[in-house]
Amino acid sequence: MSKTRVGFALTGSYCTFQRVFHAMEQLMEEGYAITPIVSFAVRDNDTRFFPAKAVKETLMRITGQEVLDTLQAVEPIGPRKLLDAYVIAPMTGASLGKMAHGIFDTPALLGAKSHLRNGRPVLIAPSTNDGLGASAENIGKILGMRNVYFVPYGQDDPVGKPRSLVADFDKLPAALSAALAGAQLQPMLYGNLKKT
């Protein structure tokens, strides 16, 4: 039996990458075939969390695949029906805004657009400090899109960062399984995700 093919795109919420890598490892253990994809920001920027080169090396180590990091590399995803599902984790407020307004100008976003043309699921794991601020309207717009699902998310630090929303990355494998079946994993909204 062939493996379920998943595109897994990262955008620049760098502080969540360790949890994202763990979720990706879980998917590999469950038998998914993963194609790693990164936004331009992830491809090009060293941060206090990870150098860009280390991110790429980690993705290649986990998946055994080359990282797609150009518009030209991701454009064939839809026309060639290369994937069964597409994940964007983490998805920043900037990327949420672009997707909500039909702007697909990074590899992570163009890959999603290309994939959606086939009516196949896209799973989003939001991570943004303004999820209950400027990004709230964009999240609302995306919630109404067909074949787009969310990893359950909630406030990660209601007192220190009251507008911040972050996906519960431990729920990503279950959310992907649900999305492949055409369903939103519930509950979609959680309370305080901060570890106390």
In short:
The protein has 196 residues and is an alpha/beta fold.
Structure, described:
By secondary structure, the protein is of the alpha/beta class. The protein has one domain: Rossmann fold (3-Layer(aba) Sandwich). The protein is built from 8 helices and 8 strands. Strands 1, 2, 3, 4, 5, 6, 7 and 8 form an 8-stranded mixed β-sheet that branches. Strand 1 (5-10), helix 1 and strand 2 (33-38) form a beta-alpha-beta unit. Helix 1 (17-29) packs parallel to helix 3 (52-63).
Number of strands: 8
Helix content class: 25-40%
Q: On the 0-100 scale, what is the average pLDDT?
A: 95
Number of domains: 1
Query: Please, how many helices?
Result: 8
H/E topology pattern: EHEHHHEHHEHEEEHE
Largest sheet entry: 8 strands, mixed
The H-level CATH homologous superfamily, spelled out, is Flavin prenyltransferase-like
Q: Output the structural class.
A: alpha/beta
Q: Radius of gyration, Cα only, in angstroms? A: 15 Å
* CATH topology grouping: Rossmann fold
First and last CA, distance: 43 Å
CATH class group: Alpha Beta
How is this fold's topology laid out?
Layout: E1 5-10, H1 17-29, E2 33-38, H2 40-44, H3 52-63, H4 71-74, E3 85-91, H5 93-100, H6 107-116, E4 122-128, H7 136-143, E5 148-150, E6 153-155, E7 165-167, H8 172-180, E8 189-192
Helix pairs in contact: 1-3, 5-7
